[in-house]
């Protein structure tokens, strides 16, 4: 926006903004926002956006042109439009225009209907929002206005449970001190209430008359998408007042527990932070999409080559032969030479042969993906009964990519754990509480614990809170000053909101589960946080109400990693209470606490080793003079518009102790990780927790095991230290066993292929690296060393990482590894990681829904990931690959017949088939069977997919559809087309009808070839279908029936009577198919086309079966054994009691069970037993890929799977 030239002179007074705020920004940009209350004329000069929002793309007039323009930006649509234009040229086209326009219009129409439906719902939503009513202060009175008519500078009145219409500066409210409570679920997904407060100077503007006279002006930052930051200044009554995010009500919030409030509109419509955050997510494409685009270009090149060959043939034929028959076959008027005839023939053949890439391919792919997405949404085994939350596929473009994942990047808290925090242990003044000891002084196990602590002395205690160590409560009751100060800090240092619905029934609304757990613990031990105002906090301390004056809150952020409050107690003493990360607080403690510090550090390490989340608590007494100076510096920092947050953070401790909160693992996490690891998926955990906590969780969820060769821990503080630790880790991996897995021998001389060598080392390793070391490891000159080391490890844990570092780690693997990555998380700090990965998965947990909103797939528990990948992902990849292979095969078999026919028709671009058959082949005769296979096919049932994780590996290696498989399909299609043309051609050369007349004519030949083609491709899809449903049967046999019905209809008397110029060959189909010779020809063609495929598959199944073949065979054997067992039970014959078990069975798995490695043992053991030979081809291929892979710098390496 541009500041207008008519800048008012009002700023000449003393309270005017400084000179920097009067600078005019360049045209088209907005460097600052100015909004004056109750002055629409002034605000209109800036041409700010209205409050009308528009998320729709079209209207009635623009829909058709804009939608067509968007669709023709797709290369495929433009290509087919070009073909249609060619077909309208009589000298070029030998096909009617409808052979291209019918499928093109069908595709455009389906897409247009989908886009129109989506846009209709956008219009409906926009109208619903824009027409909401709001009370606006206009000319001294409140008037009802639609949201779309609200302008910047208007004063709005909100009432309880109303949505906020625009981004408002809170002026006053019905609550004391200008407080109001809001719910921000629409913004960040958090349902906990948050408090906002008007600045004191406007909090008294509660009546209409005073608000009507308010003429303050806000000068603030321009529109942006930062939800948690706002920087501005209010100029009013010759004074200026700092504004922050705590004074703002953002559009999308809901007013709660507040009767009314007034706000000044600062940002409206598209300028609001909600709309600024609604930008489009980066479009993700699958590897199959990228490969398919490349293959389509190759096919187009092949098409051009065929066109050139046939065009040259036409020119030669016309020159050598055609010129002799000008009297019978004259050239068109425009053709004056054989060369020009060849030129026109080239374009004619481009039209005829274009069906090698039909437009229906793209529509079919989208339909299949949509079906796969619905299967994920409908999966009852991924439905969480507790939360009533189903799995959700939020995109339809990435389903097959789920079957190719090699790296999973996971958050810990809320993703692997439940994010339901329980106050478990604490350390107070050097003494640890929380462990329960038996009579011998040993820690009691869970089943041996006595009754939990009795909190009946406290009428305000939370009955759900459990604690097992009675000595802590005794210390509180005895009046221990350190213990009292400990819980006093927990009851004061927080941002929790308290709600008391009935007397004594307290409900805490906390922004994080940790805060809620700590305040609840203080509540049960007698320090009950009761209520707060902007300037006070009331706590019931051992039954006595004490009100503290709240002087300042220094909230937690990722830089400070601590939270502090400054309070004045009833005696007038000022004290700062602080809680935060040990890495930050311990270095700020007074030297006199060194002994206590040592003991507390030991306790912290003990708690972290048990997987508990820790915080350190401390306080400091402040004198009045020091506090006054600090408060003045803080005020100056708050008035700074630039870098205000940094200045506040820089203006700043006796140690009380530490807390330890338990965050339990989610159900099924260890089993899921074990199963994914067996599927050769590497799991990296990226967490902000302490190293010890993260390592303990790693052991709990079986990422780390005691059987690992070594766990490397990188903790260096400098670049040199980190590089040295990574170097030592690589040396140990190479030198320790000195032999490389899979039969490789470690070369004495380090080669450029260090990564592939590292990934082949024998032994299992893990890497743990903390945040400050990771910052050095991610630098440009060291990232490859870090990647080499990490990718050679079975598990990687990065602790104390920031959201940005999470995204950087994912980007590093994406950049240098040709592998599909998946990121999974549940909080706002995981959004960048989720968006960076190839596939993003959001957990709908305790931290709002921001991760879900940014994700491609969403569900409620981590354990569902195994089903998403091993079942839905693997099936989607398998189905898409089989669909593409068959699709290219059937279209080459269909199209190449024209190529062979060209050599027998003088290269005249005459078609073999009837033009209606050409039109209907891909959209009627062969579309539904391949769609059914692409949507419903399975190689093995879902139970076997979970039991045999090795079945997932072909997707990681991209074995089922690649350039090699593509060329095999093309070769099969060309082979089929050769037989399809030459067998009927050879038969028809000599064959006669029943009456002795010549059988060979053009229409009879066309019917025979077309019928052979439809039958052959139908038999082929029957062979390709691995899982038959009623729908498959109906589509395959139904398509054949439709073909014959349409064939006979087009050669019937009825159509000839209605359209004599279009359907001239009456009775041809009936006469042709009535000849036994024709059916023998069709049968011979079908057998010769299909038998090599059947023979090859039989030999492959017998000599070199896939793992899926072995699993299917095992399943058949099990069914047969069950049937035999039932028969034996029915016979009921008696037998000896002596068991043959001990003699006939091989050594069991007892030792393996006791070692804890037997996840899904029965199936996995069977897999290892039955697939030793069948899976060797995967291993050998993996070794070849590792041999040929380059180092990460080349970006082509691939991990060698064990």
From TrEMBL:
Residues 1188-1202 have a biased composition (Low complexity). This is Phospholipid-transporting ATPase. The lineage of its organism: Eukaryota, Metazoa, Chordata, Craniata, Vertebrata. Gene3D superfamilies: Calcium-transporting ATPase, cytoplasmic domain N, Calcium-transporting ATPase, cytoplasmic transduction domain A, HAD superfamily/HAD-like. Keywords: ATP-binding, Magnesium, Membrane, Metal-binding, Nucleotide-binding, Translocase, Transmembrane, Transmembrane helix, Transport. Its cofactor is Mg(2+). One of its GO terms (molecular function) is flippase activity. It is found in: Endomembrane system; Membrane. InterPro entries: ATPase_P-typ_cyto_dom_N, ATPase_P-typ_P_site, ATPase_P-typ_TM_dom_sf, ATPase_P-typ_transduc_dom_A_sf, HAD-like_sf, HAD_sf, P-type_ATPase_IV, P-type_ATPase_N. Its EC number is 7.6.2.1. Residues 1-38, 1174-1202 are annotated as: Disordered.
